Automatic annotation (TrEMBL):
Keywords: DNA-binding, Transcription, Transcription regulation. This is Putative HTH-type transcriptional regulator YybR. One of its GO terms (molecular function) is DNA binding. Residues 24-115 form the HTH hxlR-type domain. The lineage of its organism: Bacteria, Pseudomonadati, Pseudomonadota, Alphaproteobacteria, Hyphomicrobiales. It comes from Roseibium album. It comes from the Bacteria. The keyword Repeat does not apply.
Length: 115
């Protein structure tokens, strides 16, 4: 039996998610990318395709089952796809990364202020 997008428990707009009973789109996104290793996967795919083994090496403490689950969720959400050589960001995944990357820069400055 083939797994479909609806078989996975990915957050959906209009349904309750962590932090939002109404399922506002931004909260749905934060729920998805806030899951263990979701951001790590997106970050590691931002500069090119990666095989499962390569992602496993780069996400050192992620168990294979968690990594596999996140890959399935991110594929179902349309942010990554199975490429010829591993996994890659979709156009939406790349656009999301481009919007998240400045937050990484902001966070680096913020951490300096905290220290």
């Amino acid at each position: 039996m083939t797994e479909t997008k609806t078989d996975l428990k990915i957050p959906r707009p209009g349904t309750p998610v962590r932090g939002s009973k109404s399922g506002q789109p931004i909260m749905v996104l934060f729920d998805l990318i806030g899951r263990r290793w979701s951001m790590g996967i997106l970050w590691n795919l931002s500069d090119g395709n990666r095989t499962f083994r390569d992602l496993q090496d780069r996400c050192g403490s992620a168990s294979p089952s968690v990594l596999n689950t996140r890959l399935k969720e991110l594929r179902a959400a349309g942010l990554i796809y199975n490429a010829e050589k591993g996994y890659a960001l979709t156009e939406d995944g790349q656009q999301l990364f481009e919007r998240l990357e400045p937050l990484g820069d902001w966070a680096a400055g913020w951490v300096e202020k905290l220290q």
